[in-house]
Design goal:
Elements (H helix, E strand, L loop, with lengths): L2 H40 L7 H6 L2 E7 L6 H7 L7 H12 L11 E7 L4
Antiparallel strand pairs: 1-2
Length: 118
């Protein structure tokens, strides 16, 4: 094997090593993107799902519906000022399997209430 052949072989090995390193870096970056994307998808804002909103250290109160009551009114009564009433309305509707406009006097509803408001 001549000197030129050895030099070419050495250059080829370097190129192969560089290509291999680049491929590994690309794979590592893809894995990091997937890992962080999955983490932030699961641990987003914390209240994106109404069931998760209802499960945050809550107790459940039984509320009797009276004439003139609305789910919005009931929800706003048991929602913290910093929280979105719409999420509480959705949680009440899902928990009781009712539509927001379809409640009637005498009906009882389970309402998720933050533990410190109970």
């Amino acid at each position: 094997m001549g000197i030129d052949a050895k030099v070419r072989l050495r250059k080829q090995r370097r190129r192969t090593a560089v290509i291999r390193k680049r491929r590994i870096m690309i794979i590592v970056n893809i894995c990091l993107v997937i890992a962080f994307g999955g983490y932030f998808g699961v641990h987003g804002d914390g209240i994106s799902d109404s069931k998760a909103y209802a499960a945050e250290q809550t107790v459940y109160k039984t509320v009797t519906v009276y004439s003139g009551d609305t789910i919005w009114g009931i929800a706003s009564e048991f929602t913290e000022a910093s929280k979105d009433v719409r999420k509480q309305v959705k949680a009440i509707c899902e928990l009781n399997d009712v539509n927001p406009g379809k409640i009637y006097p005498g009906q009882t509803l389970l309402v998720p209430v933050p533990a410190h408001m109970a």
